[in-house]
Amino acid sequence: MFGYVIINKAELKFREFDVYQSYYCGLCRSLKNKYGLRGQLSLSYDMTFLILLLTGLYEPKTRVQQFRCPAHPLEKHRARINLFTEYAADMNVLLTYYKCMDDWADEKRYTRLAYGKLLKGFSKELEKSYGKKMERVDQLLRELSRREREQGQSMDEMAGYFGRIMEELFVWRQDAWEESLGKMGFYLGKFIYLMDAYEDLEEDLERGSYNPFASLQEEKEFDKKVREILTMMMTECSREFEQLPILKNVEILRNILYSGVWRRFEVVCARRQEKRTGKS
Questions:
Q1: Residue 57 domain-assigned?
Q2: Whole-number Å distance between alpha carbons of 95 and 23
Q3: Staple partner for 240: which of 7, 16, 184, 191, CB 3.0–4.6 Å?
Q4: Which residues contact 181 (CB under 8 A, 6 or more apart)?
Q5: 11-24 in b/e burial notation, b at 16+ Cβ within 10 A?
Q6: pLDDT tens digits, residue range 113-145?
Q7: What CATH number does the domain containing 140 carry?
Q8: What is the domain extent for residue 215?
């Protein structure tokens, strides 16, 4: 369920993109330094949003490092690293591990089982720092998996499980911002779950896998209805964001919330409409 919380690069200034990329590079380096190649393979742009959000809110001391990336060795890159970079790296590994185990339980995908086993040792270490958080995430993923096997019909209920998982990740500590961060994570998590279901609809139907949109996909103006549902999720998420006293990199965060998250939807929607046109 990764790859949705990203920037719309075309609408960012060059300086803003460089800052965004430096936080992404910082996450990549943190994963490599703390978890090696096994952890680095779990890298995603989605967690960069969480780093920028928490950094803008709490304004921690941030180190800027110059380095050469093996993937792009001809030029130097900049990495911004702070305590939230390391927190996001931990959460990235944690969520990837549980997702691997969930994929194995539901679909018996051996590649996911193998990668999950590689990350298992790290998950035990993370229990020392995030015991309650890990227990809650594990419980929610198990419940979500159970309800999917039962073909749960309430779209709001099913999306809510992943929403509460993201809520756990967004709440860094219990303080004045806990409620707003939690709501942001909750609604963004629901958006991610439903966007993922929308993108995978045809594949899920072919495999006979659960999809919350299965009963709606033949309805008139299906894509428009999905957009309306997703818009409600992002409206609530953005409303909570705008209440936070964030000034640093706020334009990058707004780019993601108001534009970036819709990039995959537009691609999937256009592809689906092309198929319909081709059949008619």
A1: yes
A2: 19
A3: 184
A4: 53, 57, 170, 171, 172, 240, 244
A5: ebeeebbebbbbbb
A6: 788 777 887 877 888 888 899 899 989 988 998
A7: 1.10.600.10
A8: 9-279
